[in-house]
Amino acid sequence: MTVGAVMTVFAKPLVILGPTASGKSALAMTLASRFGAHILSADSMQVYRGMDIGTAKPTTQQRTQVLHHGIDVVEPSEVFTVANFVELADATIHALAAVRTPMIVTGGTPLYYKALFEGLFNGPGADEVIRSRLRGQSNDELHARLRKVDPAAGQRIHIRDTRRLIRALEVFELTGTPISALQTEWQPEGHPCSMRHNAVWIGLQWDREALNRRINARVTAMINEGWLEETRRVLNRCGALSKTACEATGYHELSEHLCGRMSLDEAIEQIKIGTRQLARRQMKWFRRFRNVTWLAGERALEGNVEAACRLWGG
Known about the structure:
The protein is α/β, with parallel strands linked by helices. It is built from 15 helices and six strands.
């Protein structure tokens, strides 16, 4: 296929969904290398400089081979919101479209996909008085209260996700209405939805036990690659992580170990558990996107590459 044909056939971005450790990055890299595409990271933790091993960031060699966007944008001490991501992603999509360069969007943050392609609920502005009061409560207290006033949001928002717990309670206090009733985060199946960008959607799905084994092996490999030392460097350089950066799976547990509050073995085990839980939440959210063609993650990479080519170029 000629370069001109590639530009014409692959005019729409390709979205590759999948839980952590599913192999979506390898699939994206192979496709991008074959067709001269750029990759846009839809991962809320790969934006932080220095947080490389724990976020499974593409290597320097991979980033030399394929141009990536949305990586190493801010310091771990800085806040990076979904609105910041949408601004960056919109600019990237328009810039690549202008020069007719194929683009692949992949990563593990469902809200990034939702915001970029479908838009977000525009709720009331921040109230610092309410937020300050809520920050004084433990996550257990916040989560328990949210389950009472908004059971749907309480089920969806993880107990460690302090930022979203506070926002949900803030919206309820300001409006008297649960945030889940105000949001249009996920339209019912078959509901017409106006997309902000047209794209081809594929996903990688795995048997749960097989994926759990991959996750456990990857956590062990990350520790062996120096994840603990990386965490120490990040904390020494930046001090405390920002309220968004601290949501990255694993860094909290390793920080607890470095502070002497948790053994390394316990931290590693907690990371494995947390990552498996994250994968289940990701798939629950990803399956709410319509028009996704799901491919078997355990199939040989080349088989999924060919399937993706047929779907993307069809």
